[in-house]
Amino acid sequence: MQIAVPKEIKNHEYRVALTPSGARELIGRGHAVVVQAGAGEGAGFSDADYEAAGARLEPDVARVWAEAELVLKVKEPQPEEVARLSKGQTLFTYLHLAAEQELTRGLMESGATCLAYETITAADGGLPLLAPMSTVAGRMAVQAGAHSLEKAQGGAGVLLPGVPGVAPARVTVIGGGVVGENAARMALGLGAEVTVLDKSIPRLETLDDRYQGRMKTVFSTADALEEAVRESDLIIGAVLVPGAAAPKLITRAMLAEMKPGSVLVDVAIDQGGCFETSRPTTHAEPTYVVDGVVHYCVANMPGAVARTSTQALTNATLPFVVALADKGWQQALADDAHFAAGLNVHDGQLTYRAVAEAFGLEYVEADRLIG
Q1: pLDDT tier at 350 (50, 70, 90 boundaries)?
Q2: d(Cα 178, Cα 29) in Å, to the nearest integer?
Q3: What confidence score (pLDDT) does residue 5 get?
Q4: Which of 115, 263, 284, 310 has the fewest Cβ atoms nearer than 10 Å?
Q5: Same domain, yes or no: 173 and 30
Q6: Are 86 and 110 in contact (CB under 8 A)?
Q7: Phi, psi for residue 296 in degrees, rounded to 5
Q8: Is 270 annotated as catalytic?
Q9: Domain boundary residue among 275, 299, 323?
């Protein structure tokens, strides 16, 4: 199979969809890998590294896309990339369509088969291709929040761990999943006072046991959210409804109750964000202020640590890429119901219920197309 790895063009996106090591694995199985020249530089992988692995370097982006049977990316395709897709091609990347109606319609019009990393499931109920980037984003959220609390960044001038004689910052993490746990773990490590809100008692029990009570675990209710809004210096939104738009848990009116210079970090921004006042930002301009509250809503946070992120992503995606390349998308999905959950669009048809419901569109059950 002809596999293409184009260079990411989203603002300050330095990751690449495949490491040279991953390319070598695919080439060793008889597939051809074409990498756009310079695609890996932001993650610390040179063109020479890919050539040494057996990949072909192509400077012409139009040819990279046009010749591909399978296109591997990291972030959702930008408008000019959507225009390059055509019927018969398969796209495998993060899509987050529930927050992107224009992108959804564009992919449907392309006729391509589009598989989303973030909706592929696992036997244990997890999201195996979302987990590595969720881990990175959760850990980065605390770094970003701590920096945003600095006075020069618009924050209240609060040091996360405090100092002897001065209390540490209060950090609330909304959501106790992969993002939330990693954020809480980082905040604890930095010496903050940490509270995790979640609606799953078993999950709260797991966190309480795992961290021996060093973080507070609270069942998420309207009262608990209101208390967090009043008391927290930093709130990290780590809520996920797989494939669907994130619920708006903190409203504009609630900001009036927050401390001046407090910080919101919305890790759910790819899915529309879990704060009413959230809007996507970039690494170039990561924050903005609403009613005295600093908002950090970068939609591709892991792109800032591109080498770590690229390696972690390839580790997770490579078995699925191998299945696609060896079997073709229909057989690969027919053989693995969890992989089949990744199908979002095929030949003009929407195949993911949560996305269809978000936009009031019709959809087709993926099983009908795979079978």
Answers
A1: very high
A2: 33
A3: 98
A4: 284
A5: no
A6: yes
A7: -115, 115
A8: yes
A9: 299
